[in-house]
Specification:
By secondary structure, the chain is α+β, with helices and mostly antiparallel strands. Helix content is 30%, strand content 22%. Helix 14 runs parallel beside helix 16 and helix 15 crosses helix 17.
Amino acid sequence: MAFILEIETTFTQKYIRNYIVGIIRKYGINAIVKQNNSSIKCTFASKHEKLQESLETIVQELPASLFLKSSKSYKIDEEPETLPELENDYPLNLGLCPSCQKEMLDVSSRRYYYPFSSCSCCGGNHSFLFSYPYKRHNTSFKFVVPCKYCQDEQQSVGLREKHEINSCHECGVPVRLISKSSERYANDAGSFRTMFEVAAKAINDNKRLLIKTTFGYRVFYKADKFNNDSILLMINASKITDHLSLITEEYQALLSIERPLLNVTIKNEELKKVVGANTSYVKYPDDGFCILLGVELQKLGTDYIAYEECDNMCEADMLMDYDLEVKPQSDMRVFLNKDDLFIAEGERVSFPSHNFEAKSLVTIAHDYVALPQGKKILFDTMKNFNSISVNSANVLEGIEDKYHSKQKTFLQDESSFISVIAEHNMFHEKCVGVYFDEVASFLYYDKKHVLRIVPPKEFDGTHIIEDIKNLREGSDRLIENLKKKFPEIYIKLETLQKRNSVKLFEAVAILIGIEDESMRGVTKEAMKFVGKGGIQIDTNLNDNRFDNTALLASIISYQLAGVKASILAYSIFESFGDYFCDILQELKAKTKATEIVICGTHFANQSLFSRMQRNLKMTPPLMNISYPIGKENAVVGGVFL
């Protein structure tokens, strides 16, 4: 008899599967570990004397993950006859697993306070890759010769087996801490610990600390210096719920191996004043540098600080740096509530990936490329690949370079739409959908082609004032009253008209009267509203297209009537939700489509998404699973256009 452990998962990446395999191999248990789109199935040789011990180790050490759900166990007749193999042909950027964190804080370890600690299944491994295949000589660690202990780990079964960038204090990377008056180096346990003590005290003394982490440059500072680009770093796990109002799923997500960014509600009134809002983007320390800095800050009585993603030119009082090249990825930003989880944007964890059936085709979108590798398609940034021989190329519209003699272009909205269909394998079904990123586009898939039923209507800000004046009879009085009652808003509208490119939600933010004049600012303002329902904002059509001018005129009317900014912001997204659902249901009925698809970063908005959920309760929409719903999914969809 064989013992089966089956874990439900919604993700296609194999780092959790490999973590389980690493533990199984360490115990020398014959097993088969297979992963598909819905589960990780582990078949163990049930008579092995260390089976129970290995299962207990898996329970204790397996990292928490956003994408792991329930588990079950049972028995079958077949007995596996070999050890399972690792499947780690490409590296990912993940948080540190419990085993590596424990080792980094163990005074007897070779990696005590060593910020580059990681294993085959965790850490910032992709940051150091500059070319495939994934071997040490194709990473920034090619000049770092592993010591005997690290070589032995790489060649032995366990979590560091085949770990291409394995290192420790014995063979590792020295780090320097530079200020205006001094410079210190760390290359052993004692000097590293002292360095992080000094760095933490500097932040506690109101200094800005710039660190080249394994995920790129970040500048850290006290939370009272919070600004629109700041992220709250919650460094004390036991105090997180003292400061933030979290559902269980949000708390677990923050501490997961993926270490995503979450937009959450702030509980602490003092922190609300510091942030200047009821919500904030929050993160828990992910790499060795952030974790060790957090440990030292906790000793000083600090529960949280702020940081920003930046480059090496960022202004700071101190710099923690080292000589290896790092290619950072954008952070994974996750949308999460009690019922739903999806990736709003970001590269980390989703890329690189090895997915779908291979085609003799290269697809290029933004900074990403998809190309055949073996029987599947490998997705990653273009910088990590050399030339490849294929039959044709699909390239996102706007990219001017010529990559192939048989090259065609595709559109962002169409590729995002088809990427969802591909992830759900719905090529045999008719689908309608909407892509929303500043402007909306409605699409239809007829089992063969993607058609734009209602193309996006780009926002033109060059004649905002005149367009509103001429919208309908009496609209000119709106502008006159706005100029009298809110002259600062009117002046900003005049300034917008002089710019070549203006986004719709810049104009919306200005009319609402908020400081952060962007979609982000409007979203934050909407989160301040705590009522049960908003007001109806004009989302009418003009020539079968969304009327941007009518939307802006409606906002001005409510602004003149004294409606609060938070209600206005919330109502805009609620009204957009009603508009999208009405159009989608109408298109679904006309085309006899069976599925509804939604994609585009702007759907990662609580007000909008909740409205969509409510209105489409009988026909829940399909969204991306393993890839972001935003622009990053274009390289995936482009393969199928």
